[in-house]
Amino acid sequence: MQENFYKKIKKMLKIKKRKLILIADRGSSDVSVRLGFLASKIIKKKKIKPLILYEFKQKKESKDIFNLFKLNNSQFIGVKIKELILLIKTLFLTFISIIKILIFGFDWFVKSFEIEKIRLGDLIYDRYIRKGHKFVNPNCLEISFLILLFKSIFKFLLLKKIFKKNNVKYSLIGSNTYISISTILMRISQFYKIPVIYVSGESYKIIRNKKEIVGDIISKFVQNQLKYSNQKRLKIDAENYFKKRVKGKLTINKYDIKKYFDHDELNWMTSKDNNNFNKKIKIKKLNYSNTILYAPHCFAESNHRCGDLIFRDFYQEAIETLEFAKKQKNILWLFKIHPYSQKRYNELKIVRKLYYKYKSPNILLVPFRCNNEKLFKLVDLVVSTRGHICLEAATFGVRNIINSHIFYDDGKISYRAKNKNEYFKFMSNVNSLKKPDKAIIIEAKKILYFRKKLQVSNPYNLLPARKLIGKKEFYNKLKRNIKKISLAFNAKNKIYVDIVEKI
Q: Which residue has the higher pLDDT, 14 or 112?
């Protein structure tokens, strides 16, 4: 009798952990559809339960979308008073973290900050500098940073608690930038070696361990597609696209779904032949051994989206590059401001301030809307973190340097600087770098074309982007399309089936 009693107690204490698939709700309709559809397929095959995680007030639209896929189990991931133990722990860890930042600085924070052996510093920092130009003078004692750090740590602890309480089998995310439940979920899943399926509108990636670098998820997709495409047809299409792009003859209409993602081509359409500036360069460059075009990225935009940088951020890179340029009196430097620095992030004053701080006879500021084709003919090297301008430079046979992973980083098109020493060495010895040959030029044109084609087609989007059509129309299309895309021989269905088979 006593033995039976102990058996019952033991049984009661032994609580079976739920087998879960965790889904990070980003609050974006397009993402909700992709993740909801994929989750429904995984659940059916793997016989597991879904749990949708959200960090702000869950949008009714997102709820409705997940409900269409019969996913209605959700949990709020944010600061909760009832989680008293986690609040106290978060407060303690926040205090310790601030002390460490004060001692070691933000460079250490970005590259090395961890909570319970899981890196979070780069994600938190990118969110912190996204608004308010905080990259100029980051301050760990600033209220906005303290709040962000506290919330980030709390969310991390809460998500980790879910992992400990349940048997998590898979994680689904639709974003890998900034600090969010998506990125925290990704890092925790990597730590526990739980497969993370990251699906964008253009591609997907399955991340299986903590050592795996996410990088630019379309890289492998682009390379594979290029490899198995009809090369003769692709070469012709790429060349035609290239000619139209350069001549600015690509038509753009924001509300045309096929043209919505062509915004980067506006630079070619609105560019002008600045003959006075070009003549100035032609005359001036005669007195220099080389001419280098430096095109920094927008300082606030997802600095670590493709992985680690050799600098703390894009702003620090610009400072150190201009400092270096000023000292290289034998080289003529052209400083080209990113178009979005003016249009999207209101950074124009900051960028110009940098230019005037390091102003020198050998550093010229490129006027806005200056034709890139004309610039490429005047320079020996183009330098950018990971901008499209380096890929474009390669299509014109111009040497170029990047210092971060990007979809065209195949070891041929660009020189990739692995550290600061290599970065500055490349720029000091331009003539030692080989120019892209004919084969590389053709390859660069193919990648440029296919990247745009991929952007427009969005193969993993199950219907037109929500920003292009009204809420009611989007939802009605979704209800109609669920049946269509679920058919066995549907192309969209096959794309997602391939993901399920790989996990």
A: 112
